[in-house]
Amino acid sequence: MKQIVKKRHQRIIQYRGETYAVDGAIAGRDAYQISNSQGDPFEISGQEYRDHVHDGLVKEEGFDKRPRNVTAKDAREAQLRLRIVENALKLGEEGVHWAKRIPILQREFAEEPTFKIKGNRFPRQSTVQNWVKLYRRGGPDALLPKHSNSGNRMPRFDSVFHEIVLDLLEMQYTSSDRQNLTSLSSDAYNQYQLVCHENGIKPGCCGRKAVEAIVHTIPHFDVLKWQLGSNEARQHMRIAQKYYDITAPYDQIELDCTKADIMLVDDSGEVIGRPWICAAIDCATSWIVAFQVFLPDPSSEHVAKALKEMISYPEEDFFEQHEIVNRKKIAALPKVVVMDQGSENVGEPIDAFIEVAGVHGHWAQPRKPQEKPFIENLFGAVRSKVSQLPGATKSKAYPDRDRTKKAMDEARLTLRVFNSIMQRWRYDEYGRTPRRKVQDIFKRGETPSAAWDRLADEHIVPEPPSLDEHHAALMIQSESRTLWHYGIEFESMQYNSEDLARLYRRLGPRQRVEIRYAPLDAREILVVDPHTGELVRASNKAKDLAALSYRELRECRSPKAKHNGPIKTALEIHKDIQARRTYKQGKKTKLQRNRSAEIDKLRAADMQNRSLKEPQLIDQIRSEVGHNKLAVTRSKNLPRVEKKDAGPNN
Predict the structure, then answer these.
(1) Among residues 462, 526, 531, which one has the least CA distance to residue 499?
(2) How many angstroms separate the Cα of 610 from the Cα of each of 352, 493, 548, 618?
(3) What whole-number distance in Å separates Cα of residue 107 and Cα of residue 520?
């Protein structure tokens, strides 16, 4: 099997009248791998693939929502669930009531090996009904077990033990007398117990497993001796090897999201829960190149904002607003961006950034912190800072859940104030704090500011992209739609203009055209003239519509209307959004209602700021589409991709 260097993005391609799934680009040459409905892989040239993209024969099907690591056991379980669901739906079509379906299904699957095992009984009626609901919403992939979501997501150790282990590593690292993991665990355990006894702290996890977890977040292979064992040593060598290639700023950026351990309040003093933080750090200098604080659950939009921040120079107003002293302006195009397998790290905004900006995206394996140790260390520093603020849910003295109620009583920071505190900490404290040598690739123990200044003199730092390239990579997306006599129908709304009407009269009815749009502004789209490549404006037929995002419109819209059907006015759309917000705040706890209201308030303010400006899509397009290309002569036969270790039955 050829190595796929580009993440599978659930695209389908119409090739020679048949539908194939696009697996991704093949390493080492300009080629793509595609698979038919049976899963057999084939290979086409990169030029052929791009020609099909230009001709509208490659379509997005949304990102892959399946678990990233599907085991054979999970696949068998999903197949069994699918058979049960299909039989249950067939019985429903025959008019069999649910109360009678389960006994029938039990008899049909009585010989199934899974249910012959002692203790594995046939699922209950509510379970089968839930499987049916998942199948109708997400298809067969939704029936895959979610075992990867289980487990304890909390850190194995507290900050006190973490500091003790790092201090011991620092001392052993700078001296010639280094210890093995067993003696390190023993020394850390003794010191931790002593500190807890002197300060009246209840000890947490402090065994060998906790020490191993800390060691795995260190990029250096030579921190410990080879007494770790050959297997452990090889694992560290593989992980550490990729960091030896980092020599200059922006060679590699690590990005991740975490929930801050602090309770915030709104302007009226009501608790709204814990905020999220999306941060990115430069591996060479440990400089924080992006730091976003928000309330909603992380999405691709939040990650896109972090990506935009890392390639944009901060404005002077930003420094003034947060009263920052260390006003260092840093921005460039990274070579590699390392992210985890979260659903917020996939989707159209991320794909657009990677493809247009020419950045290589690497998605780390789940539960492998050693693949992104710098961002994990940053979040450790964030937790240490947050524990000092009023409303913190954890502290060095009270690391347990018992402090949650106390934190709600102490909470008095709003999202705006908390963001200012963390932004000042990011520049003035963290940026000026010397790094530990065991956490520094170059083993100098410099501050991030000093490391940046030194490396900027020794290397040519990549230039940041232009403003047009920002919008092309992060703001503009494209779709293919049919041109009708009444205009373009997109996201259950209609767009038209005089220029679009002239284009319709020239092209004729039912012509497929490419449109471009800004995800955060539904007031206007651009239509690409397929003959000249010119961009034609088309305005939303709903007059006086605010600069709403398409995501917000999807949450409140009704089922898609027929072609040329009645369109809603701006007032009706705004009423639907308000009704949706009111519905979302019902049947929740007081904290959840306050949090939802604050999120809606922030979104409304953001929408209002966008509405004060006219749509500027034309200025955001980096380059126009060229003229139609000549038909490409394609090869008659598709070369078959050889499978690794293929047997005689493959």
Answers:
(1) 526
(2) 22, 20, 8, 16
(3) 53
For residue 342, give the nearest of 464, 284, 255, 241 by alpha carbon: 255
Closest CA to 439 of 227, 173, 238, 157: 173
Tell whether the torsion through CA atoms of 350, 366, 332 and 417 is positive or negative. positive
Rounded CA-CA distance 445/439 in Å is 8
Map tokens 């490419």 to a residue: 514
Dihedral sign for Cα 318, 320, 324, 327, please. positive
| Superfamily classification of domain 246-458 | Ribonuclease H-like superfamily/Ribonuclease H (3.30.420.10)
Contact 412, 390 (CB under 8 A): yes
Q: Answer whether 192's CB lies under 8 Å from 165's CB.
A: no
SS3 at position 437: helix
pLDDT digits (tens, 9 = 90+) for 82-101: 889 888 888 887 888 888 88
Spell out, as residue ranges, where the chain has pLDDT lower than 70: 1-10, 27-30, 47, 50-51, 54-56, 60-71, 116-119, 137-138, 147-156, 172-179, 219-244, 356, 367, 369, 396-402, 463, 466-476, 557-567, 584-586, 616-650
* DSSP conformational letter for 256: E
Tokens of 190: 């003794």
Domain boundaries, the chain: 14-60, 72-146, 159-241, 246-458, 475-620
Spatial contact of 380 and 387, defined as CB atoms under 8 Å apart = no
For residues 325-361, one letter each, b for 16 or more C-beta atoms within 10 angstroms of the residue's C-beta and e for the rest, the string is ebeeebbbbbbbbbbbbbebbbbbbbbbbbebbebeb
pTM, 2 dp: 0.60
Query: Exposure of 639 by Cβ count < 10 A (0-12 exposed, 13-18 middle, 19+ buried)?
Result: exposed
Residues written for the chain: 650
The predicted-structure confidence for 617-637, as pLDDT tens digits, reads as follows 655 554 333 333 323 333 334
